[in-house]
Design goal:
Elements lengths: L15 H11 L2 H8 L3 H8 L2 H12 L10 H5 L17 H16 L18 E4 L7 E3 L6 H9 L3 E4 L4 E4 L4 E3 L4 H14 L7 H19 L10 E5 H11 L9 E2 L21 E5 H11 L1 E2 L2 E2 L8 H26 L17 H6 L9 H8 L13
Parallel strand pairs: 7-9
Antiparallel strand pairs: 1-2, 1-3, 3-4, 4-5, 6-8, 6-10
Length: 390
């Protein structure tokens, strides 16, 4: 008896759900969309399933959370969606949220808040960060101390951490705070923060009060490093900037008034000629100076034009610092205006590298950390206290 010859089999004979699963396993997201366009059954399956759109979008962007205004289908084609941090997706699942809540609340109730210490050295709060990666118990100090939180994040490839006393989220690969500017991030962080603080008593009450009272101001003031081309600049004494940095990092309350008296000569009130950028003062825009004066109070306003012409070295160093800030602002504006291209290679590919930006950021970088990096690179720039002690 002759052997029976089976009919040829094609993938399109598979159920649409099975075919889609195979396609999304072996094809890039854009190729899956192209394949679906060739098949009525696949197209119908995709159009009727938000979960499949989520699968495609997460594979395409590495971002596993949404704002309230988007569906997963809309997010798949929304260029601005890819500006969000993909690394904080580690906290997007209910399981990850429960884990973070349990670790955070257990840590804060296991001992007095100010007795919590870095896992690698004796440094205690407020300069501590909790690793946000599920099931990781590591608590490390910030870069203003011994930088153990940074070392842990780099060595373990754990990208996101939470500052204990302010409940703010920082992404190392993205080099920025998470949860303020972009609606999807804000929704995720706000939801998680509410659950982290869903306990009565101390220290939860103090952390809530800290966030409610100063959180918005800290966020707003961290952005005050910008100086535009041809904008007037003012000098601000280092003593105030250091205190302001501590406030913006959540390590202390608001600073006192701006006191520039140390920058002027006692006899004639003119600007001293032996001042050094970073060591004695930083530079801010006229807009920022006006805000600081009106908010905190200020004495001895000193603009660049107030510096005598014969102080050529001082004027040149300030001009260099201002130029660095202006160029950094232009770079950041360009990054914001260009959509990040999607890639499936890795989540890190969705975040523009900001290593060079960190080196010249004068206001949103911690005074002694990123500016030390500037010195090591041999770049003479300005000084500002604002963002991160990690």
């Amino acid at each position: 008896m002759a052997p029976r010859i089976s009919q040829p089999f094609t993938l399109l004979q598979l159920p649409p759900e099975v075919l889609f699963s195979i396609a999304q396993e072996y094809l890039q997201a854009d190729e899956v969309l192209a394949l679906c366009a060739t098949s009525t059954s696949l197209r119908s399956l995709l159009n009727g399933s938000e979960s499949l759109w989520k699968t495609l979008t997460v594979r395409r962007t590495g971002i596993a959370y949404l704002s309230r205004s988007l569906s997963w289908r809309q997010a798949c084609f929304d260029a601005s969606f890819t500006r969000q941090c993909p690394h904080v997706s580690i906290l997007a699942s209910e399981e990850a949220t429960r884990d973070a809540v349990e670790r955070f609340q257990t840590l804060l109730t296991s001992r007095p808040f100010f007795d919590i210490a870095c896992a690698s050295c004796p440094i205690k709060t407020p300069d501590l960060w909790l690793c946000a990666v599920p099931r990781c118990p590591y608590v490390g100090c910030g870069i203003r101390r011994n930088a153990h939180a940074v070392h842990h994040g780099t060595a373990a490839a754990h990208p996101v951490s939470i500052k204990l006393n302010t409940l703010e989220f920082w992404c190392g690969p993205c080099v920025r705070w998470i949860g303020r500017d972009l609606p999807g991030e804000a929704r995720l962080v706000e939801s998680l923060t509410a659950r982290l603080l869903a306990r009565d008593g101390e220290p939860f009450e103090s952390i809530r009060c800290n966030k409610d009272l100063w959180g918005e101001r800290r966020f707003r003031e961290r952005a005050m490093y910008a100086i535009r081309e041809d904008e007037s600049v003012f000098l601000v004494a280092r003593e105030f900037l250091v205190a302001w940095r501590g406030f913006l990092l959540g390590n202390r309350g608001p600073p006192g008034k701006v006191d520039n008296s140390a920058l002027v000569a006692v006899d004639d009130g003119t600007v001293k000629g032996d001042l050094v950028v970073l060591r004695d003062f930083g530079v801010v825009s006229e807009t920022t100076w006006t805000y600081l004066r009106d908010t905190y109070g200020g004495t001895y306003p000193i603009s660049f034009d107030d510096i005598p012409l014969h102080h050529t070295k001082l004027r040149a160093s300030i001009a260099m610092a201002v130029r660095a800030i202006v160029e950094q602002c232009k770079l950041e504006e360009n990054e914001k205006s260009i959509p990040t291209p999607p890639s499936s290679d890795s989540a890190d590919s969705h975040c523009v590298s900001r290593d060079s930006a960190v080196l010249v950021r004068l206001v949103t970088s911690s005074a002694d950390t990123h500016l030390n990096a500037i010195w090591r690179k041999g770049v003479g720039t300005g000084f500002h206290p604002a963002a991160v002690d990690k």
